[in-house]
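ok trying again, last paste got cut off:
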Amino acid sequence: MKKIQITTAAIVFSAISELSSEDKLLMDKAIEARKKAYAPYSKFSVGAALLLENNEIVTGSNQENAAYPSGMCAERVAIWKAGSEYPNVKILQLAISASSSINTVDKPVGPCGACRQSLSEYEIKQKQAFSILFMGEVGEIIKTPSLDSLLPFSFDSSYL
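nice, full thing came through this time. structure:
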């Protein structure tokens, strides 16, 4: 038996005003996308924005369904849209913003497990990590250098 140590790195910004102009622009696009979410059941809206290497920004928002498993998270809406419209263009960065119509979301909201796995697939496919920014409606923003920072021991095609 052996014990291993796993560490991760992230930058925490106290407010959106601390972001670089490029990061702020992408987060603003995620916030705009969040406002287009269809979340009548959870009342929890999420927006995602992807910056591609061709400088296109692709957005997505969560889309719920009365049959809960049939809904889709914002991150997967955006990444599958990018994969469909720009199949060979690398993703450079992802921004995520979440809010609730029930209460103020003042903590950063990272991607769910299913989204982390989907994002991991794209990092592996493009052989290049992309940074991830995530926030709630207000407050701190976390920036990680890659999906691996959020999902160590990820599952990939090498197991198949």
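cool. Residues 21 and 27 are 10 Å apart (CA to CA). The first helix runs from residue 21 to 34.
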